[in-house]
User: Fold these one by one.
Assistant:
Number 1:
Amino acid sequence: MPTRRPGRPPHGEPILERAFRVLGAFAEAGEGLPLHTLAARAGLPKSATSRIAAQLMGVGALERLDNGDFVVGLRLLEIASLAPRGHGLRAAALPFMADLHRVTRQHILLAVRDGHEAVLVERLSARDAAAVKYRVGGRLPLAETGIGVGVALLAHAPSRCGMTRRPARPTRAGSADSSPPSAGRASVP
């Protein structure tokens, strides 16, 4: 592996990898980043980040706000919407998600497993429900989500995904030993 020079990317690191590091620097939806923050988060020199950002702006992957901050461009949304693992599933699930949303008046999440994480494909939000930090396109750690997404995806995951599932303890109504709904939550060994 090439040695890393302080403040510089590894010698010979492909431009595409550096471009994805720049794009991966954005953590929040709609977040605008000045060049120095973008460079620091990407782990690249400001000069390289500036050149890469200019190229990404040229293809619509980044946009620049009036104050000079960079934001993710709409072209990435266009491309991401073509991802086959989420699109077909989303189209098939939406009518059922809408029914569930109408009955529960709670947030309804649809995700696909990607290794030890889930990528949120769709979310129907309810105004009266508790605030949720998850966003479409965001990642959720399967083993740590106290929500049904991780549990449901792990329940049907192949054993080769390297995660184990603890069985839920049996509960009785009114029992002093009743466990919370997340007791059957998956864990990473």
Number 2:
Amino acid sequence: MAKAYFCVLLKDTVNNAVIDLDNLPAGTSSDEVEHFAPQGVDIGLWLKSDLNRAVRVADNIRNGMFDAESCYLISKLASLYENMPPASEQKDLFIAVRSEQTDIVRTSPEVAEETWRKVSNIGRTPA
């Protein structure tokens, strides 16, 4: 069960979402066939070019509201994942978006989730 752990890091907040790449919502697909490297670059540029849009998309995905922009990102990430070389074991994606760059990493599910949780809690006071 592949997932994409997605964070948008702003000065004072972190917005996040988890995308289940095996159970895509209606209006999305993983059909785009392209080499994965340019796909990753295109996704990174799209996300960092408009951080307000990236925040909105993260919030919409987290809340189960799949508008055109959210479906666009989900489809792009699902296609990217499908076009990556096969891995010998389960891998997930971790995506971190900041104003200066976007990082997309394929790693073990445990590392992706742990990194996502740690990044998501930046600046939050423990209860």
Number 3:
Amino acid sequence: MTMNLKQATEQAKQFLGPTIAAAIQEGDVNLIAERAAVADRSGNAPADPGWDPTYDPFLLGAELADLLGLRAAGTDGITSVTSEGTTIQTRAADYFAVAKALRQKASTSSGTGVGILKINTGARKGGITAGEGYLTWDGDFPELNEWRSPWLP
């Protein structure tokens, strides 16, 4: 499902619900719109000439939720109030969980919320390199070469 920015914004706000959508400030959509841009119906990528601005509303909603989550994480809020023997507790909205759920529904999703790029790096050279107390074979995880560090007492 892809659409222009205005349509994608309205759809994303519906996905987020009225409470979260009310927290979206003017300019937020334009701030993160680039991250929700996808190929248009002709297959043109956002960076291609002739791209018709096209956005995934699930990605746009996820990016908006991430933005709100970052803002919420940076502020302190009252989560508990006690008055006359009665305590009322609240919990902060988990914007990041909302973002993850929406990202998994996006047209470009790999199911993990992370896009996967396959890169052919060509043949890897075999051999052993040694340095700083580590041995490495063919670029795999380092294996500790047991020797005493001169920096430790």
Number 4:
Amino acid sequence: MTEKQYVYWSKVTVNHWNLYLAASAKGLCFVGSQNSPLEELTAWLARRRPRHALVQDHEQLAPYVTEISEYLQGTRQQFSLPLDLQGTPFQLSVWEALCQIPYGQTASYTEIAARIQQPAAVRAVGAAIGANPLLLTIPCHRVVGKNGSLTGYRGGLPMKTELIALEKGSLTRGMHAPPPGDHFHDAKKVGRDKK
């Protein structure tokens, strides 16, 4: 008999931002869309981690809430806490490439496909980006169309627009972008499970 596994959740509320977060014992596994109901999280859990029970636990999520809040206030550019990503090897490679997009900058789907050495896989890259469970922390909001236009986003285009403006505004107010490299997590801390 398999031991019951848990995913813990809490809510971040900063200014007009309201986001649900969830973490397993391994790390952050879900960041919801702006002002979406708890059902967004429960539906994701039912699809992606059906053997996990969802438990509200503000204390367990406090470090994640702090970092997400700091990001939404424009005072944090890098996330340091562990992530618990589950996806196919292709999805994981796309999500890792997203983490290489510098704070306050954007990249196209074509550039991401080239970055993972699969230049013909632009549509598959788009699908992998759409499956990203960790909004903000895996910065899919930084991906734009080839011509620079804003394209689809799980949180909606208004949220994407606001996140890009937040990052550009933080840089204009004097926050300096981190050096090139892995901008969102220490790769050694990322829990990865391939499907």
